[in-house]
Structure formats: C-alpha cells, structure tokens
UniProtKB/TrEMBL annotation:
CDD domains recorded: Anticodon_Ia_Leu_BEm, LeuRS_core
Localization: Cytoplasm
The enzyme's E.C. designation: 6.1.1.4
Family note: Belongs to the class-I aminoacyl-tRNA synthetase family.
GO MF terms held by the record: aminoacyl-tRNA deacylase activity; ATP binding; leucine-tRNA ligase activity
Protein name in the entry: Leucine--tRNA ligase
Protein keywords: Aminoacyl-tRNA synthetase, ATP-binding, Cytoplasm, Ligase, Nucleotide-binding, Protein biosynthesis
Regions that span the bilayer: none
The protein's enzyme class: ligase
Amino acid sequence: DETYDFARIQQRWLPVWDRLRPFATDDETDARPRKYVLDMFPYPSGDLHMGHAESYAYGDVLARYWRQQGFNVLHPIGWDSFGLPAENAAIKRGVDPKAWTESNIEQHKRSMRQYATAFDWDRILHTSDPAYYKWNQWLFLELYKAGLAYRKPSNVNWCPKDQTVLANEQVIDGRCERCDTPVVKKKLTQWYFKITDYADRLLDDLNQLEGRWPEKVLRMQRNWIGRSEGAEVEFEIEGHHSRVPVFTTRPDTLYGATFMVVAPDSDLAAELVAGAPAEVRMRFQAYLDDVGRMTEIDRQSTERVKTGVDLQRFAIHPLTGERLPVWAADYVLADYGHGAVMAVPAHDQRDLDFARVFDLPVKVVVDTNAPVTGVMPAIPLDEHGNAVLPDDLPALDPKTTGEALTGDGRMINSGELDGMSKQHAIGRMVQLLEAKGVGRAAKSFRLRDWLVSRQRYWGTPIPIVHTADGQEVPVPLEQLPVTLPDSAGLDLSPKGTSPLGAADDWVNVPSPIDGSPARRDPDTMDTFVDSSWYYLRFLSPNDDTQAFDPRQVERWAPVDRYVGGVEHAILHLLYARFITKVLFDLGHVPFTEPFESLLNQGMVILDGAKMSKSKGNLVTLSEELEQFGVDAIRLSMSFAGPPEDDIDWKDVSPTGAQKFLARAWRLSKEPLARAGTDPKPGDRALRRETHRFLADAPGLIESLKFNVVVARLMELTNATRKAVDSGPGAADPAVREAVETIALGLSLFAPYTAEDMWANLGFEPSIANAGWRKADRSLLVEQSVTAVVQVNGKVRDRVDVPADIADADLERTARELPGVVRSIGDAEVRHVVVRAPRLVNFVIG
Ligand code: ANZ
C-alpha cells in the first residue's frame, strides 16, 4: 500500500511497542549513562486535553532524544490523584471519589498509550494509593520528629464556598484559587510545615539554577520568599511587661520615628488594649470587627484613606527617651515582621498618610536635597548656625506636601549620624543599637510557614493521634498507612470540619502509648505534600519497605529535565525544593535541589484566548487525534514555535503536518539501495544536507529549538525528494542514508510514522532505540579543494578533498589513489611532504 494511512500505522505499532517495552528501565546492569526526564504528573480529572498533549509532546522529544544519544532514560508517569478537583467532581456526581478517580486514571492511561508517550509503564504510581500515601505519612512524621511539623491556632485563609482552609499561595487577589470566592479569615488550629526555617537557603540556592530554570520562575520564587534586610529595634512600652520589637528596613531613620503602629489583629494589640480605658477597648473592638471583614488586598491598598485607633499607650524611643503614641491600624499586618512598626512619617508614605489623617508629628531626618555622592559641599549657614538652602530646592516638608521623602540624601536631626549617607547611617545605627542592647541587624521574609492540614476527605490522613489529655502521638511506623475509611455513609460536602471526624469507627482509636481512648487527627494533607517528593517515589515505586531506595536515588536523581506548566512556578516547585532540602538534612538524599533544569511550556490557546468549556472555545484533543492522527498533532505542537511560547491553535496546521509526514513516509517506499550499502559514492550535495542535520539537531534539541529541528527535517525531506525525482535517483545510496536520517529525526516527534518508515527500510523495531548517527564532519564543508599528489616531485594524480582535511587524512587518501599506487610500486617511501589541503609529495628511492 503506497498511501500514508495514519490510523493503520497506529494500529500496527501500538501492540508491537506493548510487547517490546522500548522504554523499560528495569535492567539494573544497564551501564549506559542515565538521564531522568520528568513530566509534571496530571490530576486525573477528565480526559487528557490539549495542554497535556503539548507538554507530553515536549517531554517526549527530550526523553526520546536522550535515548537516541545512548542514554538510559527514566521517563515515568503517575497521577496526582488526591485533592479537591476529584472530591468536588465526586460530590457533584454522587459517586465514590476513589472509584471516580480510578476510572479517570484508566482513561488517562489509554489516552497516553495511544499518544505514544515514551513512558516506562512499569513505574506508574498514583498518590491516592495507600502504597503511596503510606510514605506521605512517613514523610510527615519525619518532619514532625525533626520539629518541622507543628500545630498552632491561627488566622487562616478560609474559602466560604469550598469550606476549606487555603494556603497563602492559593489565594489569588483575595480570592479562592479554585472557585474565585472572596477569601475570609478564620481562627483554627492547623498543622504547619516550618518552611520559613529554610527561607534563606530556598532563596540563595536559586542562584545555582540560574540559566537552567526560566528567569521568570526564578524571579517569582525570589519575590515569593521576599527577603528584606534591615534591623530589629526594641521599644519599651509604658506599663507593658516586655520590650516590643519592630522590623525596619530603614534603621537609619530611627530619630524620625514619631509614633508606633501595631496590627489590630495581633496578639500584641490585644495585650495593649487590655490595659487601656474601656472607651478605647470598645472602639478597638469595633475596628477589629471591621478589619476582619476585609481582604488582605483592601488592607494593603494605598488608595484607601487610612484608619486606626489610638490605644492611648506610649512607647519609649530607645535613643531619645521621647514618649511615642501607640496606634492600631490595619495597614500594619499581623504576620509580617513583628506585627508592629516604628512609624517614620517623613520618609514612609504609608506612615505619612496616617500621620496626616490623625495629625501626628512628622520629623525629617534625611535631607534629600543634599548630594548623595562625593564630598559634601560646605553648606552655607545663617547667623544662628542653621543651614541656608538655595531657594529653588523643594522644601523638606512632607506634612504639607503629602509626599514622603523616600529618596537618598544626608542624615540630619540624628545626633551622631548627621551628615552620613543612608548606607553609612544604616550600618552605624545597627552598631549603636547593638551597643545599647536594644536592637540588631535582622531579616524579614514574606514567606509564611506552609499550612498543610485540610478539612477534606480525599487526601492523606495525618498520622497523628490525639489523646484525651491533649497529647499528640505519632502513629507508629509499623501501623502505617493510616488508610482512609470508605466514603460510603460519610457526608463529604464541605462544612468546615473534616468529614473524617464523623467516621466514628475510624476516628476513635486507642492511644498508641497506653491504649486509653484517643482520636485520630481528622484532617488530611494538602496535596502539595504528595507532589513534593513523588519524583523520588518513581525511582522505586513498588518498594513497600521504604519511601525510596537510596541506591536508586544515587542512580537517577536529581531530575535532569522537568517539564510542566508555569502555573506551578511558585507553589509546587517551592515545596518540592523545601522537602528536598529537608530530606538532605535528614540524610535521605545526597543533593539539595530536585530539578536540575526546567522547561515551562506555554499554553495552547485559541484566537488569543485561554480555552475553556464556558467560553465555548475548547479544542478537544480526542477529536483532533481522530481527525489528524497522533503524529500530526505531536508534530504540530513541536513545530508551532519555541516551547515556552503560547500556541494559538488557530495558527497551527495539523493538515500541513500530516502532508509533511506523508511526504517523508513515501520516501521510505521508494526503491532504495540495499540496507548497508556504503553511501560514499553517493550524491555529495544530499549527503552534506543529511550530515548537517545529524550535526546540528543535537544542539538544537538541547537548547529546546524543536521547531527548528522540524523545519530542518522538512528541508531534508524536500532535498531527498528532489534527489529521487530529478537527481541521482532512488537507488543512490545517499538517498537511503537521507531517508534513514529523516526517520531517525522523526522518531523524536512522530513515533508512529518513524517506526513504520524504519520497517519499510528493512530494520527491526524499535527505531526508538536505534541510536543517533554520528555526522561525518568531512562532508559538512561546502568547499572542496583539488589536491595535487606527486611522486618524487612529478604530478601523478589529483583528488577532491574537504578544505579543512587534516594532513594525516590527506596522506592516507593520497596513498590509495590509482596513479600513486602505480608509480610507487614496490619502492620504499623514504619521506612524505604533506601540505594539506593542496599537496602531497612521496619521496621514494
Ligand atoms: C521604618 C521605616 C522608615 C520603614 C522608612 C520604611 C521606610 P519590606 O521592604 O516590605 O520588608 N513594616 C514592618 N513590619 C510591617 C508590618 N507587619 N506591616 C506593615 N508594614 C511593616 O518593608 C519593611 C518596612 O515595612 C519596614 O521598614 C516597616 O516600615 C514596614 F523611611 O520601618 B519601615
């Protein structure tokens, strides 16, 4: 059959691959170098969509490429199968989340198999499998034992619709990431992981990833961790038992502090207001209620008129001894720094706005008119010794202008700091504070501890038992996994407490310590815990004695190339990095970063817009595959542009891709030279194209220029067709060489077509493991030079050689020329003069 029929080709090769398992990685004796290529594992909600098709196409190009380069490549797949999407879908359909999840996984598996992703199907895992989450519980207990998992009552982000707690990261512009409902605050006792202990390392180690992770992701991670450097300054408060620290990035402005502000929802505010007059307490309570109804975004908005309550308490300035009024105001956040600020209205805009509303004093301590660099010019003084400023300089009067003086300048009104630059003054002030024992250099982070407990059913149960007297007891390792009870009979609908609390038989257990009545922790873990270490589980997914096998970790980890969407740029990657560092510190893994390099593919959009069911612009993957075939879709993804860019499906032509594949495939049906025929005498121009492709493709793939490689394959296909139709013809060995190379190149992008071509060319399957061919460098040079070959100074022959041929190669070539062989005969060559590429002279005698 001479027509390209993608459906027939797909049917032909799938069962063969099932049998050959070309991507198995279970041979422990395999001595090839190793690569670990990982695609972010999917949520099994619904069938695969265009986004999956794109991401898996890219991951597969890399996995198949490394295999052709002679690496043993681990490319596993699994499912992130716990979590809200599955649970909400299950609630909507009234089915068991487990059954629903598993049937979706089966659907995914079928689709992925058909999509011919080069996965090792013997390593699959899914996180809702007790065999997986047993080790999730182990991980929790490892953190617990290390003091990195703890419980605290705190204000949490609460989604009133999903009735669940959200991590800061899951609140987008004050709304629930999943359902867009405005998030409110609620006080609950929750489990946390102490990621803040790792803030410095999580930030500093990003430098190692420079150039290997997208710059955008590095920036997002840096901003998320948000390190500020400055100082901690302690203030006495009259009538208060201990000194109150504040965090400031501008200790140089301490002499300009004229009042203090505390966050209304902080413990400190509650303590201070307790000692205030009844009238103040009432006003404060009303204010606190208002604040509780506000989103974080509103609170921090600089647009809103500042509000606050005078607590009628006084702080003592640590250097001047002045009494500074203490206010509570919502622009100060309870969970940043120490939840209190020294207000410097002259130099901080928020403080100035506040001071102007409540008529509080403003004191300028930085002369922002003074030159910052170089030697200070002599400032002219009046008869009283005060500086005379030129008339045209703006007045240093923020209280009137409303503009805080945030620029650089020279210190004034600041005692021994006067005349110093900002940097100098910051250093000096820290010394002063340290000497007086009222402050020190300090850092503050935007990063908060990771809230890991969820009041939902479909997640990993937290392996802690609470005794009647309030003790937390870890479930002993040999009793893991703590499996989820059957969902039948449980009300899964969200209501603010975990559905597991109502599973009496499950929740009531004897204390592991003394058998006294106790209760299991009813919460489940954030699914980001599950995905924080799954890359390690893939290394020994069926090991029921440990979370991961250290020997396999040694062999494969860390991940060489991680592929997935930019939507995981912050959360998932940060958590995986954190858990990896914890595992390193506990001696479980020998590295500190999980993902050596990262590819974030763009989105597949339609007409410039994100595809969604509600917008009615959904392109359905299964229909595209049906119409154009797997290879045409995969090839289209790679050809559409750089993988990081969005793909507008409107600009993509699967028909064009299909036509190209047919053209390439038909070449393999030509009456080609026999396999193994030496192509040396073949058409030199075509050979040059072939070997250029072989030489260039590896660098292009490694720098992720997949689209360029596809374009080059198209060119090579055209050149080959020309050589067949109007050149040396199909039987020229150079044509066979070109067609074999096209098949090899296509094996990265269009595995079915490539395999079928390989069979047409007379080879055994699978082309996936055929191995890349080495480019013959001598064929790459465009110019050839005619070398003259002499024997005893007389020209005996000529030969065309590459312009950059080496002396030794030229000599060897020359010796075999007929004219040379004839005239040397049996004589002994006593001396050879080689001047590559133009001349060889054999001296005989
Ligand atoms: C005095 C001062 C003077 C400040 C000045 C700034 C400029 P970043 O860069 O975000 O770390 N601050 C401290 N804790 C706060 C809290 N819990 N809520 C709101 N604001 C808080 O900002 C650090 C600055 O933000 C700190 O430095 C403090 O104001 C304020 F000319 O202290 B600064």
